[in-house]
Model the fold of this input.
Amino acid sequence: MKDLFGKALLDYQSGHYSEDLITATNISDEDTLPLPYLFRGYDEMPKLEQKALQLAKESILDVGCGAGNHSLWLQEKGFKVKAIDSSKGAVEVSKKRGVLNVELKPLLEETETFDTILLLMNGTGIFQELTQVSNYLKHLKSLLKPNGQLLIDSSDISYMYQDDDGGMWLDINSGYSGELDYYLSYKGEKEIPMKWLYLDFETLKTACLTVGLQCEKVMDGAHFDYLAKLS
Done:
């Protein structure tokens, strides 16, 4: 990976903001991801993220921390937070912004245990494919302390396959509808495409049951998204 996401964060942090990130998927056209949004404060966060932060307790792991927005807010509230990300640039920016404990590390290499684990901004995306969900959930379960909780958000994107008449144009041979190829570009450079997974709530709940996790919906968001609590 070229870490274009990290480069964009570093540019913004160092005052060299001139362009936004461009995203696309195999079922959607190019869209702009504004860099200022990746540095948002609590008041600018969606209700789902605010609710997740309100529910966080005791020792916390912030998975895919990005620019450190969630970790910084939790630190200010007095929580002990560890932040991890697989983007070198994101980790560097989080450190510069004041996140006290942040590491460059994939989720599957984490070994510490926590009372709360956060996977926000479509947290299920990190699972990549439906076949990988159980592996990730088992690992996340191993990182939870007794009575610990995992707060994760995602979306049911089946609406993206609807035609104007309300019918569905899903290809039954193409696998689960939430499995997408995700494309990112920045300042004329293109990132290596990656797999990204959106999970509807019922599919997530079923996957949790198979690995011995309870799954409850905390709230619905404004646009087919939801926040779930796993324990």
User: Anything to note?
Assistant: The mean pLDDT is 94.
